[in-house]
Fold these 2 entries.
Entry 1:
Amino acid sequence: MAKSMKDNKAVQMLKAAEEGGYGVIGVVSYNLETITAVVRAAEKKRSPAQILLFPWALHYSPLLIHLAAAACATATVPIVLHMDHAQSEEEIVAASEYPFDSIMVDMSHYEKEENLEKTERITKFLHEKGIATEAEPGRINGGEDGVADTGDLEGLLTTQEEAERFVNTGIDFLAPAFGNVHGNYGGIENIKLDFKRVLWMRTALISGWMDRLESIRKATDGKAQLVLHGTNTFPDETMQGCIKGGMTRCNVNELVLFKYNKYIVENTGKVPLTELMGRGTDLIQEQIEYQMDIMGSSGKA
Ligand code: 13P
């Protein structure tokens, strides 16, 4: 008998975000500095938050998972532990042995029907263990450190019908493909000299995305919460537009790590390691706090 997902911490957190009309930050974490920054920012802002690990953590060291789980267990505000982009059944089974509140069953590199079939079967397996699931109908293109690039695979926008079929499999969260990509939005960023046109295009594109998002939101109808991927270099108004469009967890990677990454490149070997870690953590924390205000989750814990 599958356990009720009502008591699941991730489900409770994202349902509250949906009802409250705010977003919860999901921070892709590779190290102690990022995990520490999430906890400090969440406690300072009295905001819910999520720590996202990629399956890479399973292969690198389970100690990273234990560290993240301890951070969630000891924080004075709700922090969820989520495994993001688990792309194979083996990794999902392995991850289910750890205290993840939710796991993304990312079968989007398979064809549509296979994605659906695997998602349904694995969702049942994870629900038996009380772990909530996220699925990706369609295909969000691109890649990032720890997630295989979709390479030659065609990006597929999520349709309303697909969203309905995925929700019917019992998933808890749905990651729509509505024009978002993982990693760099090279195009927009590169057209720096043509800013007006870019702005105009951006507005037009955003309204197109919102239409699709709106239809997907209708299909999920509160039965599954929407999750945003691919937020690299997102302007504040784009983030807030997506939350208005129904997004509950907003995954971030470079968006909160870019200052840290630059600092590490510039200072490694030049300052003591303790300073590198301390200042590095502060730089990530500042960006997370900023995004909590933008997403409207500050004070919601
Ligand atoms: P990017 O914005 O860098 O793609 O990372 C966030 C994300 O979507 C992780 O799943």
Note: Residues 195-220 form the longest helix (26 residues).
Entry 2:
Amino acid sequence: MKVYELSVKEARDRLLQREISSRELTLGVLERIREIDPKIHAYLEVSEELAMEQAEEADKRLAKGDNISPLTGIPIAIKDNICAKGVRTTCASRILENFTPPYDATVISHLKQAGAVILGKTNMDEFAMGSSTENSGFQITRNPWNLERIPGGSSGGSAAAVASDMAICALGSDTGGSIRQPASYCSVVGLKPTYGRVSRYGLVAYGSSLDQIGPLTKNVIDAAIVLSAIAGHDPRDSTSVNKPVPDYTSYCREEIEGLRIGVPREYFAEGMDPEVANLVHSAIRRMEEMGAEIVDISLPHTQYAIACYYICAMAEASSNLARYDGAHYGYRAPDTDNIIEMYSKTRAQGFGAEVKRRIMLGTYALSAGYYDAYYLKALRVRTLIKRDFENAFEKVDIVATPVTPTAAFKIGEKITDPLTMYLSDIYTISLNLAGMCGISIPCGFTGGSLPVGLQLIANIFQEDILFRAAYAYEQSTPHHKRKPDI
Ligand code: GLN
């Protein structure tokens, strides 16, 4: 086995046994990036020098044997909307092409304290707006399982990097599915924590009431290791919740006897690829064989989720993105005569088409006369969607659904039709609206060898149940061990 193929847990065990050093591990992963990334284009920036410094530092800690945490010496990739001091952070946007943050996001501080090794920044849809990573202002990332297809989005670079062993694990962000959907398309594990579980300080805001940072990993226990390291209350994020952070790995046990799993009938609707539906149904049957109880449930407001999400997310985005005006940081249009012209040219030249579309739609939904009709109404629907889940969780412990209606689509297939692209988010966005946690785990492959994920959803702050169910299912299948042939 090559060092870059290791999972977090395997790498940690070898580091502790002194079988490898963090330096060797990091060099191995950097070499892998050099070899494979010209085909995948997962990274926007590889911070080799910083990574090697951190690896040497980690080796010193490991040699001394004190202050060691489960991530000490482990190379991790970071989505490019999470600020790391001194490392360019562009959000895959031309408007931030030259932005180097002077501070660390709280999750990065946690990783640094843990002694992790930061490999670099991964590609994404510009400002996390999209489902394919094709909206990047810089490059198109390819799916390691099929180079003609998208890796999903918006955390497509992170998912592709983990799937092709160009990182031992990665961080992404999820506003409406951006961790779970690329995880599903790339056959890795992706977890969207409960809103408030992980600090958003230093995460470039898209839809602030929906955004959460979370792990993309090679297996479930790795996701538990990473979440345990990054979760927790942060006085710098008033929406982060002051609740103790358990060691999530302690829930990774093969016990789902008696677990009540709800299967919402609205999630196997029209437009669902039968092959994907079959794989998800088989996964649910597998859990039933393992002793779980399957319960038919209804989430009746699911049909309004797309409209509701896109109004809320775009409204928040239009406000959040007002700060990119050329005055403070980032790109500034040259040769302008006055400040209004400077603002408008900077924004016209700096933002890509999808971002502009969303700023306009969001501004419209918030403007006088339309606010009640669109934004306020969407907020009301959001409450109904949240109640659907709350009612469901009175009857069941978790909910099992597909992550997406189809496997990864072809590059170019949906990019000219934004509405079709939005519709593909149908199964991931509801739980962001409701604030719940969810995980995508590999549940098989289509006849065309494209990965498919199973989504498990739990009530707020019940990541423990998610880990229990996800781990038990994963251990009973071979899917997470399969690797793409690049
Ligand atoms: N695809 C969704 C969107 O475009 C979700 C993106 C995300 O979770 N950041 O908004």
Note: The chain has a mean pLDDT of 97.
